[in-house]
Amino acid sequence: MSDSDVRVAALCGSLRDESHTRTALEHVLSTAEQAGATTELLDLREYELPIFDADRDRSAAGDAEQLAARVRAADTIVLGSPMYHGSYASPLKTALDYCGFDEFADKTVGLLAVSGGAFPVTALEHMRSVCRALNAWVIPHEAAVPNASAAVEDGEFVDPKLEKRVRTLGRRAVQYASIEPDPDSFESDQNVGAQGK
Question: What is the tally of structural domains in the chain?
């Protein structure tokens, strides 16, 4: 697969109008485009996603089927979320609950987390655990934006080192889009909830 064939989709787990997560993901996608990829921001504000109910088919759950199809079509998925109570945000959790192995197995995933305070390490760890259970291959490089209100000003990063780290995720999203992970993670065969409803 050439870089021009790579499709990168970023799922934004923040619903805020002035979202630092969305801003950071836009930088990731801009860099992925510069590397030759086709990109798409999947802004969860634009999707009707009811709380996941395993008894309801995905096709009867608002825009869940449409969202899952867009995730499935991507070669690399970048998950972005603010850190809430030490984990990632519930809109992203709901979106991931409507996806499964069809959308994530053997796919490359990048992680980005944003926090109002210190380094959002637990949010990154929790997203990584979900991806591992779905048999995705998570890019070792991850991007974190701590102290977000001071880190971003008028849609731009104040610290060039932080901007470089975020943009590196965009380059890696393209670079590792066609990696073939092996073997399956030990959690994957225990994850019966990931069949995609």
Answer: 1
User: How far is residue 176's CA from residue 133's CA, in Å, rounded to a whole number?
Assistant: 19
Closest to 75 (Cα-Cα) out of 133, 139, 132, 166: 139
Distance CA 111, CA 93 (A): 14
CATH number of domain containing 92: 3.40.50.360
Pairing outcome for strands 108-114 and 143-145: parallel
d(CA 28, CA 169): 6
The DSSP H or E segment spanning 128 is: helix 121-133
CA 100, 101, 107 angle in degrees (round to 5)?
Answer: 115
Write out the residue range of the structural domain in which residue 152 sits.
3-179
User: Is 24 a domain residue?
Assistant: yes
H-helix or E-strand containing 48? none
Q: Which run of H or E residues covers position 70? A: helix 64-73
Query: Under a CB-based contact definition with an 8 Å cutoff, are residues 53 and 46 in contact?
Result: no
Domain presence at residue 192: no
pLDDT in tens, 45-61: 999 999 999 999 999 99
Q: Report pTM.
A: 0.90
